């Protein structure tokens, strides 16, 4: 049998962005990439949509133009956009207590938690004390509702913050169901009010009719020495980390997302599936002022609120130091004396969708060959050289001659004395 020859990475690249495709091809030549897609919008127009490698290594199925990737926690950004849409529609208020909209929530010390405290991971609800199943959202929603309502915070609300890997979307889903006049789930609201009107191919819970377009998820082995290193220097709450990342009980393997029954569950924390082009389009719209082809998704004021830092410092759940907004991950950008936040959300195994309002640019990356905790394992993150090259191309187009620094934490900003936190522009 002859050796399989993989097709070269291909796709669409607008004039001025050719170097991004070259970097993408170089990553495949070096063996860094195995199966992925990258896309970008600039000033309201698609400028990059490239893909390569294999979507399914078992049957050697190539990644195609319409392949839809698993975006994991990047889905939380879609949840944040949904809440922002409801806030703009005067259905919700960020500063209002959750219990105003969901009275049963006011139990066990949660009566004063606000919507924005929940969104910024300050509510203390990073896990559930009793284990649960994601499938309950379909099979026993009342049981899941009761468990969420009864949960006691793991720390006094608004005194610290910790990432809510699985619970965030579950709580937001209950809130949306309570306030929407049609009693839609967050997934359905997002589809009806955002994805479909704006032609964004992204689903929170994938309909089985599209399953033939998804790749096969291939979790990679973790370097045990590096993992031990992380655990020895962990700065968060070890027990909270273990509990938060060991739930739910029906997510017993990363490969469970290869099961169409599990993938169709409308979980706003993790079950987002779509094309890189679709996610880049969403990011491009919010980066470009919230309008597209005469339709308004969000006002500039609402988009600004998504870029405001709400939590930073040591995360009790992850031990890391990301900056969070109202449901968003904020990435500090420094260019000379100017600084601002790029915003979006990362996802397990290197997935990302991000928006840079300064350059009116949105981009997305998805891959099926995933490693956990890439930043903490200090492994090369495959989307970063693509993003760096993307903005180098934009600098050239806009005659900007200055180094762009893309940081992860406020600690990095302060250590480098690049700019004070208070001077970060919105």
From TrEMBL:
It comes from the Eukaryota. Signal peptide: none annotated. Residues 34-376 form the Beta-lactamase-related domain. SUPFAM superfamilies: beta-lactamase/transpeptidase-like (SSF56601). InterPro entries: Beta-lactam-related, Beta-lactam/transpept-like, Beta-lactamase/esterase. This is Beta-lactamase-related domain-containing protein.
């Amino acid at each position: 049998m002859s050796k399989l020859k993989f097709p070269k990475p291909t796709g669409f690249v607008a004039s001025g962005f050719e170097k991004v495709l070259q970097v993408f091809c170089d990553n495949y030549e070096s063996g860094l990439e195995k199966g992925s897609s990258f896309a970008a919008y600039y000033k309201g127009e698609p400028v990059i949509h490239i893909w390569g490698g294999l979507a399914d290594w078992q049957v050697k199925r190539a990644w195609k133009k319409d392949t839809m990737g698993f975006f994991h926690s990047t889905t939380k950004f879609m949840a944040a956009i949904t809440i922002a849409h409801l806030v703009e529609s005067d259905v919700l208020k960020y500063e209002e207590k959750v219990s105003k909209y969901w009275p049963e929530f006011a139990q066990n010390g949660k009566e004063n938690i606000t919507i924005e405290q929940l969104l910024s991971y300050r509510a203390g609800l990073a896990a559930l004390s009793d284990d649960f199943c994601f499938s309950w959202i379909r099979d026993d929603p009342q049981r899941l509702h009761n468990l969420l309502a009864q949960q006691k915070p793991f720390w006094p609300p608004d005194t610290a913050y910790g990432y809510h890997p699985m619970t965030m979307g579950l709580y937001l889903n209950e809130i949306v169901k309570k306030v929407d006049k049609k009693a839609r789930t967050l997934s359905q609201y997002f589809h009806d009010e955002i994805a479909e009107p704006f032609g964004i191919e992204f689903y929170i819970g994938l309909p089985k009719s599209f399953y033939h377009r998804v790749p096969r998820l291939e979790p990679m082995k973790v370097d045990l020495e590096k993992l031990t290193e992380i655990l020895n220097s962990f700065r968060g709450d070890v027990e909270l980390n273990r509990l938060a990342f060991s739930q739910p009980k029906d997510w017993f393997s990363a490969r469970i997302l290869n099961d169409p029954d599990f993938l169709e569950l409308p979980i706003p924390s993790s079950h987002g599936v779509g094309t890189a082009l679709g996610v880049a389009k969403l990011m491009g719209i919010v980066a470009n002022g919230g309008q597209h082809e005469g339709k308004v998704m969000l006002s500039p004021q609402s988009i600004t609120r998504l870029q405001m830092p709400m939590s930073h410092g040591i995360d009790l759940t992850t031990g890391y130091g990301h900056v969070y907004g109202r449901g968003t991950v904020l990435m500090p950008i420094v260019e000379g004396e100017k600084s601002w936040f790029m915003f979006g959300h990362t996802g397990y195994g290197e997935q990302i969708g991000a928006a840079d309002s300064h350059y009116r640019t949105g981009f997305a990356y998805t891959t099926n060959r995933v490693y956990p905790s890439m930043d903490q394992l200090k492994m090369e993150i495959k989307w970063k050289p693509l993003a760096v090259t993307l903005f180098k191309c934009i600098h050239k187009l806009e005659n900007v001659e200055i180094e762009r620094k893309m940081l992860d934490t406020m600690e990095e900003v302060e250590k480098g004395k690049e700019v004070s936190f208070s001077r970060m522009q919105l």
